[in-house]
Amino acid sequence: MNQSTNTSATVQSMNQSTNASATQTLDLLTKSLAIACDMAPADIDTSEHLQVREFLLTACAVVVVLTAFNTLKSMVKRVRNHLKRKAKSNDRSRKKNQSTKVTPKSKEAENDNGTDTHVETTNNTIDTHAETIKDGKGGEIYEMMIHFLQALLTIYSVINYWYHYMPNLDGKDARTQILCRATHMSIMPLFKPVSISMWPALMPLIQLLHWTLHKDKALLNYQDFVLPGTQPFQFNWLSWMYVYLVGICWCVYMVATVVYWPLILISSWILIPLVYSIPFVCLHLPVQVLNGRWACCRCRLGCWKKSGVRKLSDNWTDEKRKLAEHFGIPEEELEKRARDASAESDSSVGMLTLKALTVLYLVLTVTSMYFLPVYYGQIGVYNDMVNAFQMEFGFVPVFEFVTIHFDFQFLFRWPDTLRLDFQIVLFFSISLIIFERLVAVVMVIDEYMQEQQWTVEQKHYQPAIWMVRVPYWLGESYYKLFEMGWEILVMVYALVACLLYYLPYRGLYKCFQSEKKYPFRKVDLWAVKKGLEFGFYDAVGKSGWYIILKKVFKKDRKKKLKTLIGSGLSAKACYTYIKNCEEKKNIDLSGHNLTDAHIIAIVKALALETNATLSYLDLYDNSIGDVGATAIGKALETNATLSNLNLYDNSIGDVGATAIGKALETNATLSNLNLSDNKIGHVGATAIGKALETNATLSNLDLQYNNIGDEGATAIGKALETNATLSNLDLESNKIGDEGATAIGKALETNATLSNLNLFINNIGKETDQTLKNIQKYKREGTNGYKQVEGMNIIINKNII
Fold first, then answer.
1. If we measure between CA atoms, which residue out of 689, 712, 700 comes closest to residue 753?
2. 537 to each of 223, 360, 468, 560, how far by Cα in Å?
3. Do the beta carbons of residue 267 and residue 170 sit within 8 Å?
4. Is residue 590 a contact partner of residue 619, using CB atoms and an 8 Å limit?
5. Looking at residue 49, what DSSP letter applies?
6. Of 227, 413, 460, 586, which sees the most CB atoms within 10 A?
7. 624 near 651, Cβ under 8 Å?
8. Beta sheet of 756-758, edge-to-edge order
9. DSSP symbol at 693
10. Cα-based distances in Å from 35 to 28, 29, 143, 264, 644
11. Contacts from 23-29 at CB under 8 Å and sequence distance 24+?
């Protein structure tokens, strides 16, 4: 009888024994090894292997537990912040009722307190310790040593497994030898010693791949997707050895699993949905529910998120006002009292989810072994596969400890007669001593490498990174499919909620409205509708159906989708984005609804005080206020590279403008500054004017659409008498009257650099208008005592008198 006949007989006998006794049903691993290696099931030992469902559910449980912990932490934080606000409110009320006169704080002092509060909040949101690349002398060496040792332990376990568990294949045909070795290698990660060390060794390389692929993408791509984080570890000789060690090991595993690729393709119609359903139900759904994405209702102000309120800004100011009236609070308090969801979220959970999904390649490979009999002409295996994936929760965990035996006779006899707890202490003590000495040796090697100037760049890691591209791609694809499934559930949930709540409620609302009697309180129907709409936008993200929709819609519709869909950019997303592009000279962050918290994070990430590369920063069309402008101004005092700063169309007032003006007194690089369409008054303009008296670099200043008035214009005019660098000054629509315009005109008599002056749409009278026209003529000709400036241009053709 030939080898193929023996194998077929083995398969048939196994099927017969399975049908004969349900209590003796063979597990997948035993059955697969028996078929592949042409052995009796009784000779196969898989007791130390994890079953597929155990492996998959364990990965799901770890992520869900960590997410639950994060949710509990955010709830505690919210309660603590609420108690703090309540305590401060009670304290203010108590002081107000006291008869002792309290000296009010100045506006600047109040702003300083606000700045401190924003800085503290932002610092709490951004874990700079976790995001900062270490210096390579201490923590980085220890961390990389752990990853490297995990990889070595994995290799050691694999070699030992191969030596002890691989059967003798002498006399077997070539097909059996190849299939048996491939099957043993494919299930190797399920072997418990390998499983414990393999995934901690692989995950940093997966994170490096994710960071490499996503770090250079646009800022909006950082929203509602797994943040790439910052550089996961330092590039040096040790990390280079680590990534290639892990990458080569994974390549060996991939080559071994090539045998099962045809089975994966043949069974994909059932395997892919099956592997999709379990992590979707047991991982993705619980994580999203714990993160609060299921809550579309915005019936209370505490349910509204700051990012949702910001979506009502600018073009929808009337909607913002209506929402504030609905909740009975001032419009300026609406965003302050909304929930800061970004401070409660933890992006590391998303990264952990993505890492966990990389195991799906292994799961697909192992589950395809159900179809191994296909290679022998038998395909009746679907019932066995479905039964094996039934989730059984009625188990009792049992922990059993055994005595540890080591042969250290050349040093001392291992005290195996001691109690187990003493042996454990001794084992860890020796392990720590060995690890400490290993780190010391590595530190010596690292110092030598630095002396020899042996450097490793990112490009040297690319081959190793692409070695793990397949499992990463599969995990990322499943993540996007999970998001699509989640969004379908959200749409169904929203539709049912509207049918059960909104339609009956609207009918009842009409009845209440006609009688002017409400059962609880008057509820604005518009606010309820808008809350449900924005709650739905927040529940969906940009990593699901949006990927398809953005290719279908036109450009203007696509821009609206970018603005509305998703939970908004967090301060940490901005921080991560800037850290990943800190070597760029030009950064454009216009039109992203950035607030003061975002700006503090950006300044922190750029280390703007000492940044040596950035020359252009565009912050046009955001929601930056005095706190953010103050942070920028403080950084500009010492920055030595930034030459162009665009703050057009924000909410900067006198305090922020004063901080920027103070920075201009010492800054020696900024040449273009755009502060148009803000809320700057004469105080801020006066500070900027004072700075212009000594500033020697600024050549273009745009202050149009502010409110500097005559006092601010007079201060700027005084500065122009001595300023020798400013060539373009835009003061359009600033409520400047004859007094301010005259002061500027007088300064032009001695100024020899200003060539373009815009005073369009101001309160300038006809007489002053004519005087400025004459000055323009004198400047061009260099007559009547005015210093000549060729092409001098003064725009004053329209006023708002």
1. 700
2. 13, 30, 34, 12
3. no
4. yes
5. B
6. 227
7. yes
8. 586-588, 616-618, 644-646, 672-674, 700-702, 728-730, 756-758, 793-795
9. T
10. 11, 10, 42, 18, 70
11. 25/387, 27/51, 27/388, 28/52, 28/366, 28/367, 28/369, 28/370, 28/384, 28/385, 28/388, 29/187, 29/190, 29/366, 29/369
Average pLDDT (173-190) is 88
Task: Return the top range by mean pLDDT from 58-67, 473-482, 577-586.
Answer: 473-482
Q: Rounded to whole angstroms, how far apart are CA atoms 26 and 34?
A: 10
Phi and psi, residue 762, nearest 5°: -135, -175
pLDDT at res. 663? 92
- Residue 758 main-chain phi, psi, to 5 deg: -110, 110
Q: Once rounded to an integer, what is the mean pLDDT over residues 651-655? A: 92
| pLDDT at residue 641 tops 80 | yes
Find out whether 801 and 765 touch, Cβ atoms under 8 Å: yes
Phi-psi region of 735 (alpha: psi -120 to 50; beta: other; left: phi over 0): left
DSSP letter for each residue of 303-343: GSBHHHHHTTSGGGHHHHHHHHHHHTS-GGGHHHHSB-GGG
Residue 787: CB atoms within 10 A of its CB come to 13
Helices 469-497, 192-214: axis angle to 10 degrees equals 80
Question: What's the token pair of residue 99?
Answer: 């008869």
Residue 314 has pLDDT above 90, yes or no: no
Q: Are 370 and 381 within 8 A, CB to CB?
A: yes
Structure confidence at residue 514 as a pLDDT band (50, 70, 90): low
**Residue 88 neighbours by CB under 8 Å, 6+ apart:** none
Residue 131 confidence class, pLDDT cut points 50, 70, 90: very low
Nearest Cα neighbor of 15 from 545, 373, 402, 482 is 373
Instruction: Tell me how far apart the alpha carbons of residues 541 and 537 are, in angstroms, rounded to a whole number.
Output: 8
- Rounded to whole angstroms, how far apart are CA atoms 53 and 78? 37
The per-type count for the chain, helices as H runs and strands as E runs, is 33, 8
pLDDT digits (tens, 9 = 90+) for 276-288: 888 888 888 888 8
CB 26 within 8 A of CB 43: no
pTM for this predicted structure: 0.75
For the chain, the farthest-separated pair of C-alpha atoms sits apart, in whole angstroms, at 119
207 Cβ neighbours under 8 A, 6+ residues apart: 229, 232, 351, 355
Q: Which pLDDT score, from 0 to 100, does residue 343 have?
A: 54
**Whole-angstrom Cα distance, residue 555 to residue 329?**
37
The Cα 588–Cα 751 span in angstroms is 34
Contact 280, 482 (CB under 8 A): yes
**pLDDT tens by residue, 752-774:** 889 999 999 898 888 888 888 88
**What average pLDDT does the structure give for the chain?**
76
Amino acid at 32: S
SS3 178: helix
